[in-house]
Design brief:
By secondary structure, the chain is mainly β. It has a domain of 90 residues. It has one helix and two strands; from the N terminus they run ββα. It is rod-shaped, with a radius of gyration of 52 Å.
Length: 136
């Protein structure tokens, strides 16, 4: 017997509900990406061609005869080409996630729910009662 009296057998302890983990893991993740692309292209082409041909003959004889011959060729060409292209692309992505391992709390609430007495609101009687629509 101790100095304070005999209190009988008292059990103390902590229920861990068959869990081997007492800590929780939490985490957050954030990813972001931005991409900007711009491109441009220009093409110019020009072709000039000129051809000029001339032939002229003029003759006066001492007897007073006149002879004239003329040939003339003119060729002109002009080709022009122009191309232009410009483009741009922008995209932005963002990803957020967070997680938490709540196995400990879920199992703790499940274990407490199993011990709750819903038939008697006065207190805890240590058993699991069933509710029914029929009043007994």
């Amino acid at each position: 017997m101790s100095d304070y009296g005999d209190f009988g057998h008292v059990e103390t302890g902590h229920e861990d509900y068959d869990l081997d983990h007492g800590h929780q893991a939490y985490g957050n993740e954030h990813d972001a990406s931005q991409n900007y692309d711009a491109y441009g292209q220009a093409h110019n082409y020009e072709n000039d061609q000129h051809y000029n041909h001339g032939h002229a003959v003029e003759y006066d004889s001492p007897t007073g005869e006149h002879y004239a011959e003329q040939d003339y060729t003119n060729y002109d060409s002009h080709v022009a080409e122009s191309d232009a292209a410009y483009g741009e692309h922008y995209d932005s992505t963002e990803h957020n996630s967070s997680y938490a391992e709540l196995d400990y709390l879920r199992e703790h609430f499940d274990a407490e729910f199993a011990h709750a007495d819903f038939a008697h609101g006065d207190g805890y009687e240590g058993g699991q009662q069933e509710l029914s629509a029929v009043n007994k």
